[in-house]
Design goal:
The structure holds 2 protein chains of 2 kinds. By secondary structure, chain A is an alpha/beta fold. Chain A has 14 helices and 14 strands. The N terminus of chain A is likely disordered. The chains are: A alpha/beta, B mainly alpha. Chains A and B meet through helix 4, strand 4, helix 5 and helix 6 of A and helix 13, helix 19, helix 23 and helix 24 of B.
């Protein structure tokens, strides 16, 4: 599946060392690349990276990245209508602005932030699609558009680097993930103390020393996954068991992760990036992450993008998708919000396993949007 | 009115027989009714989109959806919430109206403004603030008492009431100011006691106005999603929204039809009570204020408490958030831009003018009488009861299929606002229309004015205060509107609420505070316009 990528010439992008020998030859196509501030007239692959990379303790000592550089991708130019699902906190727009203002002056994206894909689907059904690509923060929204038949199939050559689970039938492709994890206090526990599945937590003796945030949407998606994998009865038992063991409730998973770092309790249930944010703010914080395998606790949700069927800008749309999977964009997601890069050649921030080393459950991510039965169940057992 | 006008040939023609004048009057009424009917029909077209979408649900599924488990309970919760909020709004709004309009309460003008202003605070912002500011544990620690959770039916009803009761306050106050004191004096002279006078003279005259405000409160409560969602009340609208969240737009449309049936029942009930709602003669002269005596100062506690809860606390909390810069990731593309405020004011002003213009014939026809005209008048209320997202999706559906050229353009957005908020303007203009004495128009005609001239020189000046107040109400509700704006705004046309919506998630309270305060500030100016239309009440 990486055959096509190697034809393109995968570049190892080092942190400065060996850049000269590996450099491309003056930007993708003559004249399309504006020299970046501080660069010479020649743009080589390494010089784009700092523009996209974040800052802070995680950036120092980043390993080499094994993914195509933007500089080696066919350039972006002309108009592109991008619908973005809300919830990215302005990050995606920042990336698009970087592309259009600093890399490709001829690229004229128009961005519309939407609440849900409902309007997009209505447009498609009426043959008046206004979007060329749809970039959503969750697999559920993408699945809805795919179900409506509004996406065209992406080329393996463009998206093949991403593990198959995050590009179902190539209808859309994941670009930045968020993994469920067990943050734990390294003064209190070692990785071996944490089970390989969340299902044993209620009886592990740990639950009374843990924290969670049931009102948080990612936690509710996790419970939905558990319902789909283990059934309602087992999920009910699990929630009740954790409660009976005396787990502490907090408002959100940022608070959970902070409390773990502070030693208020030994471990928690949270999205992976909160622990990284804690560490970014407090490099010495005694917090690390454990991942379970194949169960609801190993759920990985992803933001992803698809190209609309009805677009007449398929070429630039596909190129845009490829740019989101470039080393620079993946580094952007990894170092600015600590999202999980979807290209295995770009490791996540911290010493975490790469995306292809995680063992997410075999589950249709689109099914996670059916939240209502989960909320009913959670209310019923008194968790909500 | 003040000049005699030229006595030309046309004028001679006008000075016809009574029968001729009557024929003209009847012709006018039919024309007006037809115009009103056309407007009502146009405003109801989005419902066609909802019906079309709902029709895509098969009959079997439809029965399944309508008889789903828990269907009755959410329906009941919605009705109960609407009833409780409406009753509570009347309980707060009417006494406050009486205090500020008819008594010697100190600083009446100030308190009038204070207790009208909560309407400018979007109720979802109010709910958001209360949820974050209310900390029972803190109070428990300090005072040793246990407070109930803010979440649930009770909390939801309280928050909604605090931010929507001004509808009742405003309509009741207008009626009280207009109430003819000679009637109460007559009643007193005839030996009726204070209580008797209140029951037999004052209340019957006030009832239509109270009902008009209560109707707006009830419909608002039924259609609101944001506040019940934040307060975790399981209402009917939540069912609709869950359907959208799971991308079942047809199911959502079907549930909306169910909601509309409920609205039809409420409108029918209201038209029994309301009649010519909002009539105010403004003939009031020399009303003697009720002396509160020893209660004069203690009475200020009521408006003061309401003002603290609805204005001081939310604005204080927002200011607190404003100074607290706690951004995890400061995205450059989420920086506040002044153009958001400009766009907001611009589109709200256009919607206000459009709604004012459209409301005049509807209100005129309604006052002129006739069951059909009343029906058209009430038909415009349906839009107010349709949740914004339902209306928005219906217009997306209709425009993309039938008229793609207007999709994501300002005209369609303005149309959506007019559909949603017109009844507020119809209500206030109806009150003003009721004051226009047909004799005055006849006099102008007799004096040689054309029908248009008579309308321009006699009717319009009399309607102006009501029209302006109505337009101002539309203006400030338009500025607060979120769901339809999100779906229909032109790409790149961001407003204050779309910006608040984007930054309110996660840890961006600090950023949401500035545009929210701007929204409240601009809205306050609009509210001052509404109140200035009452003229001087000596406060």
């Amino acid at each position: 599946m990486r055959k096509d990528r190697s034809r393109r010439g995968v570049l190892r992008i080092g942190a400065g060392i060996g850049a000269a020998t590996l450099a491309g030859c003056g930007g993708p196509i003559d004249g399309t690349v504006t020299p970046l501030p501080g660069s010479e007239t020649e743009t080589d692959d390494d010089e784009l990276l700092p523009e996209f990379r974040g800052s802070g303790s995680y950036v120092e000592g980043r390993p080499d990245l094994d993914a195509p550089s933007m500089a080696d991708l066919p350039p972006l130019s002309g108009e592109l209508s991008i619908y973005i699902g809300v919830g990215e906190g302005g990050l995606y727009e920042d990336l698009i602005t970087r592309l259009s203002e600093e890399v490709y002056p001829d690229f004229e994206p128009s961005v519309r932030v939407v609440d849900s894909p409902n309007a997009l689907i209505k447009e498609y059904e009426a043959d008046t699609t206004r979007a060329d690509v749809y970039w959503a923060v969750d697999a559920g929204s993408l699945g809805a558009v795919a179900d409506a038949g509004a996406f065209s199939k992406l080329d393996d050559g463009a998206v093949g680097a991403v593990p198959a689970a995050f590009r179902p039938d190539n209808q859309w492709v994941g670009v930045a993930g968020r993994a469920r994890a067990l943050p734990y206090n390294t003064n209190a526990l070692s990785a071996d103390d944490l089970p390989d599945t969340v299902m044993t937590l209620p009886d592990s003796g740990l639950a009374g020393q843990m924290g969670w945030a049931p009102t948080y949407s990612a936690f509710q998606a996790f419970v939905t996954a558990m319902r789909l994998l283990e059934g309602d009865a087992a999920t009910r038992d699990w929630l009740t068991g954790m409660q009976d063991a005396g787990i502490t409730e907090l408002g959100d998973e940022w608070l959970v992760s902070n409390a773990v770092a502070d030693g208020e309790f030994q471990a928690g249930l949270a999205n992976h990036y909160y622990a990284l944010r804690v560490q970014a703010a407090r490099p010495d914080a005694p917090i690390d992450l454990a991942f379970t395998s194949g169960d609801a606790g190993a759920l990985v949700n992803t933001s992803g993008i698809g190209v609309l069927n009805d677009t007449n800008r398929t070429q630039v749309a596909t190129r845009f998708v490829r740019h989101l999977l470039s080393a620079e964009a993946q580094e952007f997601f990894a170092t600015r919000t600590f999202a999980y890069p979807m290209v295995p050649g770009v490791p996540p921030a911290g010493d975490l396993p790469t995306i292809d080393e995680l063992e997410p459950p075999d589950i249709d991510l689109a099914a996670l949007s059916d939240l209502e039965p989960t909320l009913d169940l959670m209310r019923d057992v008194g968790v909500l | 009115m003040d000049d005699a006008g030229p006595s030309d040939a046309r004028a001679c023609g006008r000075r016809g027989t009574t029968a001729e004048r009557l024929r003209h009057a009847v012709g006018d009424r039919i024309g007006l009714t037809l115009l009103s009917g056309a407007i009502a029909a146009l405003l109801l077209t989005p419902l066609l989109g909802i019906a079309l979408s709902a029709a895509e649900v098969g009959p079997q599924d439809a029965i399944g959806i309508l008889s789903r488990p828990g269907a009755l309970s959410v329906l009941w919760t919605s009705v109960a919430l609407a009833a409780v909020v409406t009753a509570a709004s009347v309980a707060i709004g009417v006494p406050l109206a009486w205090l500020t309009a008819w008594t010697d309460l100190p600083y009446r003008r100030f308190w009038t403004i204070v207790v009208a202003l909560p309407l400018v605070v979007p109720s979802y912002v109010g709910a958001f603030v209360f949820v974050h500011a209310y900390d029972p544990e803190l109070v428990v620690d300090e005072l040793g008492v246990t407070l109930p959770s803010i979440y649930g039916f009770g909390g939801g009803a309280v928050v909604l009431t605090l931010f929507v009761y001004p509808y009742v306050f405003l309509t009741t106050r207008a009626a009280l100011l207009g109430l003819d004191a000679s009637l109460t004096d007559a009643a007193r002279t005839l030996g009726h006691g204070r209580r008797e006078t209140l029951r037999r003279v004052v209340l019957p005259q006030l009832l239509p106005s109270i009902a008009a405000g209560a109707l707006l409160v009830a419909l608002y409560t039924l259609s609101d999603f944001g506040t019940p969602a934040i307060m975790r009340v399981d209402t009917f609208t939540r069912d609709i929204f869950v359907s959208y969240d799971t991308f079942a737009t047809e199911r959502a449309a079907l549930l909306s039809v169910e909601l509309l049936a409920l609205v039809a029942v409420i409108l029918a009930v209201e038209s029994r009570v309301g009649g010519t709602a909002g009539y105010a003669s403004r003939a009031a002269r020399g009303t003697e204020r009720t002396r509160l005596g020893g209660w004069r100062w203690p009475a200020t506690l009521l408006p003061a408490a309401i003002g603290t809860l609805t204005l001081l606390i939310p604005v204080g909390v927002l200011l607190g958030w404003l100074v607290r810069a706690d951004y995890q990731y400061a995205a450059e593309s989420l920086a506040f831009q002044p153009s958001f405020a400009v766009n907001t004011v611009w589109v709200a002003a256009v919607a206000a003018v459009a709604a004012g213009a459209v409301a005049v014939p509807v209100a005129q026809a309604s006052v002129a009488g006739g069951r059909l005209a009343t029906l058209f008048d009430r038909a415009t209320y349906v839009g107010f009861a349709v949740p914004g997202i339902v209306l928005g999706i219906a217009l997306v559906e209709l425009s993309t299929r039938v008229f793609p050229a207007v999709y994501q353009t300002l005209p369609l957005l303005v149309f959506a606002y007019v559909v949603r908020f017109l009844p507020q303007a119809v209500g206030t203009i109806r009150s003003s229309s009721a004051q226009v004495d047909a004799g005055l128009v006849d006099a102008a005609l007799t004096l040689g004015h054309t029908r248009l001239g008579a309308f321009r020189r006699v009717t319009l000046p009399l309607l102006a205060p009501g029209a302006l107040a109505g337009a101002a109400l539309v203006f400030l509700t338009t500025m607060k509107e979120l769901p339809a704006t999100l779906l229909l705004h032109p790409t790149g046309f961001d407003t204050l609420v779309t910006y608040i919506w984007r930054v309110q998630g996660d840890v961006y309270y600090g950023r949401a505070a500035l545009p929210t305060l701007a929204l409240i500030g601009i809205s306050m100016l609009s509210m001052l316009v509404i109140l200035s239309q009452e003229g001087d009440d000596g406060g």
